[in-house]
Protein backbone atom coordinates (compact mmCIF):
# COMPACT_ATOMS: atom_id res chain seq x y z
CA UNK A 1 0.00 0.00 0.00
CA UNK A 2 1.32 3.45 -0.89
CA UNK A 3 1.27 6.38 1.50
CA UNK A 4 -2.25 7.59 0.93
CA UNK A 5 -2.99 10.67 3.04
CA UNK A 6 -6.29 10.12 4.86
CA UNK A 7 -9.21 12.33 3.89
CA UNK A 8 -12.14 13.04 6.19
CA UNK A 9 -14.88 14.93 4.39
CA UNK A 10 -18.10 16.47 5.65
CA UNK A 11 -21.16 16.62 3.41
CA UNK A 12 -23.52 19.25 4.78
CA UNK A 13 -26.20 18.39 2.20
CA UNK A 14 -28.95 21.06 2.18
CA UNK A 15 -28.40 21.96 5.83
CA UNK A 16 -26.89 25.02 7.44
CA UNK A 17 -27.22 28.77 7.07
CA UNK A 18 -24.61 31.52 6.81
CA UNK A 19 -24.40 31.69 10.60
CA UNK A 20 -23.47 28.00 10.78
CA UNK A 21 -20.32 28.56 8.72
CA UNK A 22 -18.65 29.68 11.94
CA UNK A 23 -18.56 25.95 12.85
CA UNK A 24 -15.79 25.56 10.27
CA UNK A 25 -13.61 28.07 12.11
CA UNK A 26 -14.28 26.28 15.41
CA UNK A 27 -13.37 22.97 13.76
CA UNK A 28 -10.08 24.43 12.50
CA UNK A 29 -9.15 25.42 16.05
CA UNK A 30 -10.18 22.10 17.60
CA UNK A 31 -8.34 19.71 15.32
CA UNK A 32 -4.94 21.36 15.75
CA UNK A 33 -2.02 19.46 14.27
CA UNK A 34 -4.19 16.63 12.94
CA UNK A 35 -4.91 18.83 9.91
CA UNK A 36 -1.34 18.41 8.72
CA UNK A 37 -1.62 14.63 8.69
CA UNK A 38 -5.19 14.27 7.45
CA UNK A 39 -6.92 16.23 4.68
CA UNK A 40 -10.03 17.78 6.22
CA UNK A 41 -12.80 18.88 3.87
CA UNK A 42 -16.19 20.52 4.36
CA UNK A 43 -18.69 20.58 1.49
CA UNK A 44 -21.33 23.19 2.35
CA UNK A 45 -24.31 23.94 0.10
CA UNK A 46 -23.30 25.62 -3.18
CA UNK A 47 -24.59 29.00 -2.00
CA UNK A 48 -21.92 29.04 0.72
CA UNK A 49 -18.91 27.59 -1.11
CA UNK A 50 -17.36 30.93 -1.98
CA UNK A 51 -17.84 32.60 1.41
CA UNK A 52 -16.61 29.57 3.33
CA UNK A 53 -13.58 29.18 1.05
CA UNK A 54 -12.79 32.87 1.59
CA UNK A 55 -13.27 32.70 5.36
CA UNK A 56 -11.02 29.64 5.61
CA UNK A 57 -8.46 30.61 2.98
CA UNK A 58 -5.53 30.64 5.38
CA UNK A 59 -6.75 27.83 7.65
CA UNK A 60 -6.37 24.07 7.47
CA UNK A 61 -9.91 23.20 6.32
CA UNK A 62 -10.45 22.59 2.62
CA UNK A 63 -13.78 23.53 1.06
CA UNK A 64 -15.59 21.49 -1.57
CA UNK A 65 -18.93 21.33 -3.34
CA UNK A 66 -21.64 18.67 -3.36
CA UNK A 67 -22.29 18.50 -7.10
CA UNK A 68 -21.30 20.14 -10.38
CA UNK A 69 -22.54 20.39 -13.93
CA UNK A 70 -21.29 17.83 -16.45
CA UNK A 71 -20.78 20.79 -18.80
CA UNK A 72 -17.20 21.91 -18.91
CA UNK A 73 -17.76 25.07 -20.90
CA UNK A 74 -19.96 28.01 -19.99
CA UNK A 75 -23.41 27.14 -21.30
CA UNK A 76 -27.12 27.96 -21.16
CA UNK A 77 -27.89 25.60 -18.26
CA UNK A 78 -30.16 27.44 -15.84
CA UNK A 79 -29.55 26.48 -12.24
CA UNK A 80 -26.34 24.56 -12.87
CA UNK A 81 -22.94 25.42 -11.46
CA UNK A 82 -19.86 24.43 -13.43
CA UNK A 83 -16.78 22.85 -11.92
CA UNK A 84 -14.74 25.79 -13.22
CA UNK A 85 -16.98 28.21 -11.27
CA UNK A 86 -16.58 26.12 -8.13
CA UNK A 87 -12.81 26.12 -8.58
CA UNK A 88 -12.95 29.91 -9.07
CA UNK A 89 -14.96 30.18 -5.86
CA UNK A 90 -12.21 28.37 -3.95
CA UNK A 91 -13.44 24.76 -3.92
CA UNK A 92 -10.80 22.03 -4.05
CA UNK A 93 -13.03 18.95 -4.23
CA UNK A 94 -16.52 18.11 -5.46
CA UNK A 95 -18.77 15.19 -4.50
CA UNK A 96 -20.40 13.53 -7.52
CA UNK A 97 -22.90 10.68 -7.71
CA UNK A 98 -24.10 10.88 -4.12
CA UNK A 99 -26.93 8.36 -3.70
CA UNK A 100 -29.38 11.20 -3.07
CA UNK A 101 -28.56 12.53 -6.55
CA UNK A 102 -28.58 9.06 -8.11
CA UNK A 103 -31.97 8.26 -6.55
CA UNK A 104 -33.87 11.55 -6.33
CA UNK A 105 -32.42 13.15 -9.47
CA UNK A 106 -32.09 9.86 -11.39
CA UNK A 107 -28.42 10.41 -12.14
CA UNK A 108 -26.88 7.58 -14.14
CA UNK A 109 -23.33 6.22 -13.97
CA UNK A 110 -22.67 7.92 -17.28
CA UNK A 111 -23.75 11.33 -16.01
CA UNK A 112 -21.75 10.87 -12.81
CA UNK A 113 -18.66 10.05 -14.90
CA UNK A 114 -19.18 13.18 -17.02
CA UNK A 115 -19.40 15.27 -13.85
CA UNK A 116 -16.24 13.65 -12.46
CA UNK A 117 -14.43 14.35 -15.73
CA UNK A 118 -15.63 17.98 -15.77
CA UNK A 119 -14.35 18.33 -12.21
CA UNK A 120 -10.92 16.93 -13.09
CA UNK A 121 -10.65 19.22 -16.12
CA UNK A 122 -11.38 22.21 -13.87
CA UNK A 123 -8.66 21.20 -11.42
CA UNK A 124 -11.01 19.85 -8.74
CA UNK A 125 -10.70 16.42 -7.13
CA UNK A 126 -13.96 14.51 -7.63
CA UNK A 127 -15.23 12.27 -4.84
CA UNK A 128 -17.21 9.63 -6.71
CA UNK A 129 -19.87 7.97 -4.52
CA UNK A 130 -20.91 4.35 -5.02
CA UNK A 131 -22.96 1.96 -2.92
CA UNK A 132 -25.71 -0.62 -2.93
CA UNK A 133 -29.29 -0.36 -1.68
CA UNK A 134 -30.66 -2.68 1.00
CA UNK A 135 -32.54 -4.70 -1.64
CA UNK A 136 -29.37 -5.13 -3.68
CA UNK A 137 -27.47 -6.30 -0.59
CA UNK A 138 -30.23 -8.74 0.36
CA UNK A 139 -30.19 -10.10 -3.19
CA UNK A 140 -26.42 -10.71 -2.97
CA UNK A 141 -25.67 -8.12 -5.64
CA UNK A 142 -23.18 -5.90 -3.79
CA UNK A 143 -20.20 -6.86 -5.96
CA UNK A 144 -22.19 -6.52 -9.18
CA UNK A 145 -23.65 -3.13 -8.31
CA UNK A 146 -20.59 -1.52 -6.73
CA UNK A 147 -18.26 -3.00 -9.38
CA UNK A 148 -20.44 -1.61 -12.17
CA UNK A 149 -20.73 1.81 -10.52
CA UNK A 150 -16.96 2.07 -10.10
CA UNK A 151 -16.20 0.94 -13.66
CA UNK A 152 -18.75 3.33 -15.17
CA UNK A 153 -18.64 6.37 -12.87
CA UNK A 154 -14.97 7.15 -12.29
CA UNK A 155 -13.23 9.50 -14.74
CA UNK A 156 -11.53 7.91 -17.70
CA UNK A 157 -8.75 10.49 -18.00
CA UNK A 158 -5.81 10.42 -15.62
CA UNK A 159 -5.86 12.59 -12.52
CA UNK A 160 -6.52 12.24 -8.83
CA UNK A 161 -9.97 11.21 -7.77
CA UNK A 162 -11.46 9.70 -4.62
CA UNK A 163 -14.07 6.93 -4.35
CA UNK A 164 -16.53 6.96 -1.44
CA UNK A 165 -18.22 3.66 -0.59
CA UNK A 166 -21.57 4.68 0.83
CA UNK A 167 -24.07 1.85 1.22
CA UNK A 168 -27.37 3.60 0.55
CA UNK A 169 -29.10 1.78 3.44
CA UNK A 170 -26.48 3.04 5.90
CA UNK A 171 -26.90 6.73 5.05
CA UNK A 172 -28.93 8.84 7.42
CA UNK A 173 -29.74 5.98 9.81
CA UNK A 174 -28.07 4.23 12.70
CA UNK A 175 -26.73 1.06 11.14
CA UNK A 176 -23.46 0.45 9.34
CA UNK A 177 -22.06 -2.65 7.64
CA UNK A 178 -19.83 -4.82 9.80
CA UNK A 179 -16.13 -4.03 9.71
CA UNK A 180 -15.59 -7.20 7.66
CA UNK A 181 -18.22 -6.11 5.14
CA UNK A 182 -16.60 -2.68 4.82
CA UNK A 183 -13.20 -4.32 4.27
CA UNK A 184 -14.66 -6.66 1.66
CA UNK A 185 -16.24 -3.88 -0.42
CA UNK A 186 -13.19 -1.63 -0.15
CA UNK A 187 -11.03 -4.50 -1.45
CA UNK A 188 -13.49 -5.04 -4.29
CA UNK A 189 -13.33 -1.33 -5.21
CA UNK A 190 -9.50 -1.36 -5.17
CA UNK A 191 -9.47 -4.50 -7.31
CA UNK A 192 -11.92 -2.94 -9.79
CA UNK A 193 -9.79 0.21 -10.00
CA UNK A 194 -6.70 -1.94 -10.56
CA UNK A 195 -8.47 -3.55 -13.50
CA UNK A 196 -8.95 -0.08 -14.99
CA UNK A 197 -5.82 1.79 -13.95
CA UNK A 198 -3.26 -0.89 -12.99
CA UNK A 199 -0.80 0.08 -10.24
CA UNK A 200 -2.12 3.65 -10.11
CA UNK A 201 -5.15 2.26 -8.30
CA UNK A 202 -2.99 2.14 -5.19
CA UNK A 203 -2.92 5.93 -5.11
CA UNK A 204 -6.69 6.33 -5.05
CA UNK A 205 -8.19 7.07 -1.66
CA UNK A 206 -11.31 5.07 -0.84
CA UNK A 207 -13.53 6.51 1.89
CA UNK A 208 -16.29 4.85 3.87
CA UNK A 209 -19.54 6.81 4.35
CA UNK A 210 -22.84 6.00 6.05
CA UNK A 211 -23.73 6.80 9.68
CA UNK A 212 -20.16 7.52 10.75
CA UNK A 213 -20.21 9.14 14.18
CA UNK A 214 -17.78 9.87 17.02
CA UNK A 215 -18.51 6.45 18.56
CA UNK A 216 -17.91 4.20 15.55
CA UNK A 217 -15.35 6.23 13.57
CA UNK A 218 -12.28 4.93 15.42
CA UNK A 219 -12.92 1.30 14.61
CA UNK A 220 -13.98 2.03 11.02
CA UNK A 221 -10.66 3.84 10.49
CA UNK A 222 -8.77 0.69 11.48
CA UNK A 223 -10.33 -1.33 8.64
CA UNK A 224 -7.85 -2.29 5.93
CA UNK A 225 -8.29 -0.17 2.82
CA UNK A 226 -10.31 2.58 4.50
CA UNK A 227 -8.55 5.87 3.75
CA UNK A 228 -10.97 8.12 5.60
CA UNK A 229 -14.65 8.92 5.72
CA UNK A 230 -17.44 10.88 4.08
CA UNK A 231 -19.64 12.10 6.91
CA UNK A 232 -23.13 13.60 6.68
CA UNK A 233 -25.01 14.56 9.84
CA UNK A 234 -22.06 14.34 12.19
CA UNK A 235 -20.09 16.89 10.14
CA UNK A 236 -22.49 19.76 10.88
CA UNK A 237 -21.27 20.41 14.41
CA UNK A 238 -17.59 21.09 14.98
CA UNK A 239 -17.68 19.12 18.26
CA UNK A 240 -18.88 15.91 16.57
CA UNK A 241 -16.76 16.24 13.46
CA UNK A 242 -13.58 17.01 15.38
CA UNK A 243 -14.21 13.97 17.62
CA UNK A 244 -14.37 11.84 14.45
CA UNK A 245 -11.18 13.39 13.07
CA UNK A 246 -9.29 13.05 16.33
CA UNK A 247 -10.33 9.37 16.44
CA UNK A 248 -8.26 8.65 13.33
CA UNK A 249 -4.97 6.88 14.11
CA UNK A 250 -3.09 9.45 11.99
CA UNK A 251 -4.43 12.33 14.10
CA UNK A 252 -2.04 11.72 17.00
C1 LIG B 1 -23.85 11.14 3.42
O1 LIG B 1 -24.88 11.75 3.17
O2 LIG B 1 -22.93 11.14 2.60
C2 LIG B 1 -23.75 10.45 4.70
C3 LIG B 1 -22.79 9.59 4.85
O3 LIG B 1 -24.69 10.76 5.65
P1 LIG B 1 -24.72 10.27 7.19
O4 LIG B 1 -23.30 10.35 7.71
O5 LIG B 1 -25.63 11.21 7.87
O6 LIG B 1 -25.22 8.86 7.17
Structural class: alpha/beta
Oligomeric state of this protein:
single chain
**Tertiary shape:** globular
How many E-type strands?
8
Summed over residues and divided by their number, the pLDDT gives a mean of 96
The largest sheet, given as strand count, sense and whether it forms a barrel, is: 8 strands, parallel, barrel
What name does CATH use for the topology?
TIM Barrel
Q: State the CATH class.
A: Alpha Beta
By DSSP (H or I, 4+ residues per run), the number of helices equals 11
Distance between the termini: 21 Å
Order of helices and strands: EHHEHEHEHHEHHEHEHEH
**CATH homologous superfamily placement:** Aldolase class I
Quickly give the CATH architecture. Alpha-Beta Barrel
| Rg, Å, rounded | 17 Å
Structural commentary:
There is one protein chain. This protein is α/β, with parallel strands linked by helices and 252 residues long. It has 11 helices and 8 strands. An 8-stranded parallel beta barrel has the order 1-2-3-4-5-6-7-8, surrounded by 5 helices. α1 (22-31) runs parallel beside α11 and α8 (142-153) packs across α9 (179-197). Bound molecules: phosphoenolpyruvate (PEP). Phosphoenolpyruvate binds at residues 11, 13, 166, 171-172, 209-212, 230-234.
Topology overview:
Layout: E1 7-11, H1 22-31, H2 34-37, E2 39-43, H3 49-55, E3 61-65, H4 83-88, E4 93-96, H5 99-104, H6 109-121, E5 125-130, H7 134-138, H8 142-153, E6 162-165, H9 179-197, E7 205-209, H10 217-221, E8 228-231, H11 238-246
Bound molecules: phosphoenolpyruvate (PEP).
The site of phosphoenolpyruvate has 14 residues, from strand 8.
Amino acid sequence: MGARKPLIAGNWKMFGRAADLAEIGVLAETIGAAAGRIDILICPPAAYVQSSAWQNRSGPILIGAQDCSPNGADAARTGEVSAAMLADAGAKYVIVGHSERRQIHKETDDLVRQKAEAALSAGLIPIVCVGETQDERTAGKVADVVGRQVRSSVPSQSGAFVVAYEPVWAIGGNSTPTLAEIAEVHALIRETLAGQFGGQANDTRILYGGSVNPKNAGEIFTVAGVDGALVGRASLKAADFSAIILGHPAAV
